[in-house]
Amino acid sequence: MLPFVYQDIIPLLLNTKALSLLVLLGIIVTIASYIDFEALRIGKLSIVEPIYAFEIAVTASFAALVFGEVLSLYQGILIVLIFIGIFFISTSSFSSLKTITWEKGIGLAIIATIGMGITNFLYGAGARITDPLLLNWFASTFIACICGIALIIRSEVQTMISDLKTHHRLLFGVCVSDIVAWVAFSYATLSIPIAVATSISESYIVIAVLLGLKINKERLKKHQVFGLILVITAAIVLASITKEL
After folding, report:
1. Rounded CA gap, 198 and 242, in Å?
2. Can you tell me the mean pLDDT for 113-133?
3. Three-state SS string across 99-149, please?
4. Contact 233, 90 (CB under 8 A)
5. Which of 190, 181, 183 is nearest to 67 (CA)?
6. Cβ distance 94 to 100 under 8 Å?
7. Under a CB-based contact definition with an 8 Å cutoff, are residues 217 and 189 in contact?
């Protein structure tokens, strides 16, 4: 992205308000992402994944408090339906939710959910204050610098180089997909409410499920199929009734 934003870097450094917002975004997205992966590593997927559905509510709350975004009744209902659908898809068994105990993974998942919800909001706010491409370049560079410093401190640079050589196709695909997704999300928040953009984008779980069905030959339970249909339907309707700002 640097070739597209290099002329805007100096003005950004001189804009205290915009720079402060982007630094805050970089800090939060770095911490939230780390906690996110850590929660998935030590927690039970059947319990951690459903918690992440609340990310939509966190983002919507910040958008309403800071920008005063007001959704119509129909938009609100559709966002709730998307949330319910994602919750259903992410829940492999409701019986596991009945026996939730306060373990380390759950606490981290809750913190990660709040952090990623704030991250969604800050991406939208940053896109409106600066520029979507500049915003994403800064965030990516910030995260890369922090991770690079961490790898040096932990003496894991050689391990990273080895992983890059072994899994370069996978890692390249992940990086490109992630950047494209965040850039598209940032541009979307310029035209539609941040809460709506987040709700529609969180429907990515549908694509993940479909890929799992196709590639890994996974099977869904009835409530997951219901959630899949609910998310697809609600997201399409929400996108069709939402007018540009």
Report:
1. 13
2. 92
3. CCCCCHHHHHHHHHHHHHHHHHHHHHHHHHHCCHHHHHHHHHHHHHHHHHH
4. no
5. 190
6. no
7. no
Residues 196 and 242 sit within 8 Å (Cβ to Cβ)? yes
What is the distance of C-alpha 216 from the center of its chain? Answer: 24
- Backbone phi, psi, residue 105, to 5°: -65, -35
- Residues 237, 224: Cα–Cα separation, whole Å: 20
HEC letters along 26-79:
HHHHHHHHHHHHHHHHHCCHHHHHHHHHHHHHHHHHHHHHHHCCCCCHHHHHHH
Predicted structure pTM score: 0.83
The alpha-helical segments, DSSP class H, found in 189-221 are 194-201, 204-215
Contact between 136 and 179 under an 8 Å Cβ cutoff? The reply is yes
Predicted confidence (pLDDT) per residue in 41-58, tens digit: 887 666 677 788 888 889
Nearest alpha carbon to residue 22 among 117, 114, 120, 142: 142
At 242, give phi and psi (nearest 5°): -85, 125
Q: Distance (Å, rounded) from C-alpha 133 to C-alpha 120?
A: 15
CB under 8 A, 24+ apart: contacts of 163-169: none
- What does the alpha-carbon distance between residue 29 and residue 34 come to, in Å, rounded to a whole number? 8
